[in-house]
Amino acid sequence: MANMIQGAKDRISEILTAAYNKAVEKGELPAGAALSGSVEIPKDTANGDYAANHAMTGAKALHMAPRKIAEALVANMELEGSWFSSVEVAGPGFINFRLAESWYSDVLRNIAAEGADYGRVDVGHGQRLMVEFVSANPTGPMHMGNARGGVLGDALASVLDRAGYQVWREFYVNDAGNQIEKFASSIDARYQQLILGEDQVEFPEDGYHGDDIRDLAKAFYDAYGEKYMQEDVKTRHEAMARFGLDRNIPKMQSDLRRYGIEYDQWFFESELHESGYVAQSVQLLTDRGYTYEKDGALWLKTSQIITEHMLKNGKKQADIDKLELKDDVLRRANGFYTYFAADIAYHRNKFEKRGFDRVINVWGADHHGHVARLKGAMDAIGLDGDKLDIVLMQLVKLTRNGEIVRMSKRTGKAISLTDLLDEIPVDAARYFFNSRPESPVEFDLELAVRQDSENPVYYVQYAHARICSMLTALAQDGHTVPAAEAVDFSLLAAPEELDLIKQLAALPEEIRLAARDYDPSRINRYVTELAARFHRFYTACRIKGAPEGVLEARLFLADTVRRVIALSLDIIGVSAPNKM
User: Fold this and answer.
1) What is the C-alpha to C-alpha distance for residues 109 and 489, in angstroms, rounded to an integer?
2) Over pLDDT 70: what percentage of the chain?
């Protein structure tokens, strides 16, 4: 699995080391220094394709001016047989390298050889990694935050898979606790209102007021009539909660499937309670001295736990003191465990019982305050909280014609994931939501359905379709895509061709960086730029009617772009249509 960009950087470091050793042998540079530095791609390629700063970082150890060191290194370099055609010293001591034709040829050959595996890198070394995302309460429709979290989690999981991790996608179903009791009591109130009249039954002030609750109550009444009016509250609520969950959870699953998201597991919170795992986890914290009783409830020493965790990670006590930390209830006076207790047990289950090496949760920014609590709780329970990573995503703002949109045109209610996918294509939703997690998203509903270059997903898909159409037309004229070994890649020398090949080469590096930073939006930016460079190449470099060897080389290049666009879009869960 070749990363040709990293490969070029590594070769430069090797060339510089060999040049230094040669210069030392000739007495031109002092011995004994470990020559090291960084190799970067300059923003302005007029300065070369790669720039090394080794002469500047070595100046102190060598007791020489950086430019003198650079000149000595260049004078002792051997570039023959390498990926570089020339090298020069610039400014205070930068050493600039220019790529040779062999590098561009090897990029195209490697992509052809790797096929569907192109872009894979092995930074994960097979570590088992869980990505938990969406995990919306099953008490109502999924909202725009869930819509964004779904794409970010799914795309991140794909990126991590291609970066060499064993990835597990999971949805945590909160089917226990206070919110389920509130769910059941809301259905119950609407159910009784259907039978006795709305004026006769008071709706709970903290209940769920959505029309979906009315629909569930009506469906429950249609199924059972007035039968449950005779039952006690506990029996009635258990039946109504089960009835509602049995309808809502499959609906969530089908909506997410429509959205292109499949999970390896839907993990139910109720299982943690029923198996005694929550009680056992809380007891473990008690045994380790991290709980105390007050007012009949069992409390977690959260402030102590967070302080210990932050000190472990180099934070100063003075900064921690400013946070005004508070302790948390784990078990209420009524004997019921809190959501936080279940969350601790769930994450203990991920690490201890199922053995994941690292766990990533995709959460809304409003959960920011919960991050340190949960990481600290992992430390307190005897696990490593630093193996839990939280990706916090910012809010979504829907707009149409510059105006903020809160209601669905179809239903007249707050826009749910279902409403969104009824209005715009899944591809557009996935592409737009897969943006930088730390940045708020302004989702322009009008732009998402436009069929022009202003719509980025259309722009990229059009590039793919354009290549498909071109290949079909050329095949009718007898020109099919040749095998790599039959192509003379040295004929690809125009600036637009070389820029396009450089962008093709960048995918493995983009996947590495996207995995490192937990930022799958890098793939959006990568493939958008690849489409832009293809359009420039297509305008500047004639294929049909070009001399035979040039035609074959350009045809091969265009087909390579087609395959890499399709592969990149597949990573983020977007289709690559052959026609538009």
Assistant:
1) 9
2) 99
